[in-house]
Every structure is written in C-alpha cells, then in structure tokens.
Design goal:
2 domains; 8 helices
Length: 224
C-alpha cells in the first residue's frame, strides 16, 4: 500500500517507520526545512540548543519503536540521565533542585519547606491514578469499546477516566493538594512548559510529575 504521512515530527516519523517496516511504501511530507516538528534546533557560534522539548521522559516508548522496527535503541542513540531534573529559582531568593529519585526529592523538599515532601507525595498519588487511567490511550490501541478485554481480562471501565479529574484545572489541583505557593508554581509549570495557562489547562497535565519520577528524565547526546 502507498501511504502519505503529513508532518515529520516525532509522531509522523514514528508512524512512517512502523508503516515502512510493515512493508508499505511510505512518503513523509514536511512543510519546514528540516524534520523534527517541535524538536527544533538553533545553532550559533559553534553551539546548539534545543528550541522545543528539552527532556525525554518515557525512553521505553522509543526503545519499543526501535526494537519493533529492527534496531536496538542503544545502537543509534546514547541517552544521558538528567539529574537533577530541574532547578527552580524563586523571587524570595530560595532555590530547589528536584531529583527524579523520589527519596532525594523528598529530602530536598522537606529541607526547602517543611511539609512540602508530604504534600508532594499526596500530589504524586493523584498523578499516579491519572497515569494508570490514561496510559492505555497514550501507549497502545484505545481500550474501546468497553466490551473489549483489557490485559487483565476484565473489560475497561469508562468510570476510570474520572480519575483524570476532567473538570479540574491544573491550578485547582495544585491549590487542593499542596500548601506552599512556590510548590504550586512548580506544579503549574507542567502547563506553562507546554505553552498552556494553568488557570485553564486540564489537571491531567499533572501526569508529567509522575512520569518524571517513575521513568526519570533523559537527554539524547546531541540534542532532541
């Protein structure tokens, strides 16, 4: 079959590779000068910067893509663990380095703001529920219609989607789970990082916090 893929972003390239590996004739069309989509690159004076996403947080998705299409990921990319994941500076002069390692993150949070570690654990518990409810839609075929068995053998329950708190905003979730206003700002960056307004962005964006702790943060050598 002859197939055209519109857009040479990560999704378009991955779709094209999978389709070509399955034996189809594939052409990928891209309006920009180079592939990559949001994963742009700026070069100046011998230096290069990622102009879009700066972290890879689910390396197993890439690993599956490479393995399913004929080459181990490690043959093509060197992934470097980013530690700490983020460094936050606040107007009051305080600073927080947040590690992907949860015990280290808890220790840093408690030293920075007593009680913040417990609040962060409560927040991550909600994020984990969101992740488990949404991951079938993010990483595999939609578990629909409901009569289709899930991997556990039980049909998916549409009520599980309520765990993503569809009527909540990210700011509302932050206000309901953590007390330190600076920690709320950290949660809200999951929206601003994506160019969204935390006052209007869905609470589901909070899964990024869970993903960073569960799978770590990585950067391919040479940039995204």
């Amino acid at each position: 079959m002859e197939i055209a893929v519109i857009g040479a972003g990560i999704g378009g390239l991955a779709a094209g590779v999978r389709l070509a590996h399955a034996g189809h004739s594939v052409v990928v069309f891209e309006a920009a000068d180079a592939p990559g989509g949001k994963c742009g690159r700026v070069e100046r004076d011998g230096f290069a910067w990622d102009s879009g996403p700066s972290l890879l947080t689910m390396p197993w998705v890439l690993r599956d893509l490479f393995e399913q299409t004929g080459a181990p990921l490690e043959d093509e990319l060197e992934l470097l663990r980013v530690e700490p994941v983020t460094r936050y500076h606040f107007a009051d002069g305080s600073r927080l380095d947040l590690s992907a390692d949860l015990p280290q993150a808890m220790e840093a949070l408690e030293a920075w703001s007593p009680g913040a570690g417990a609040d962060w654990i409560r927040f991550l518990g909600i994020c984990g529920q969101m992740w488990r409810a949404s991951v079938p839609f993010l990483t595999g075929p939609p578990p629909w219609p409901p009569r289709r068995p899930s991997p556990s053998g039980a049909p998916p329950d549409p009520r599980d989607l309520l765990r993503v708190r569809p009527w909540w905003t990210l700011r509302g979730l932050a206000a309901a789970t953590v007390r330190d206003p600076r920690l709320r700002m950290i949660i809200e960056r999951f929206a601003t990082y994506a160019g969204a307004d935390p006052r209007r962005a869905p609470a589901a964006l909070a899964v990024a916090g869970y993903v960073e702790h569960a799978f770590g943060a990585w950067h391919p050598r040479g940039g995204l």
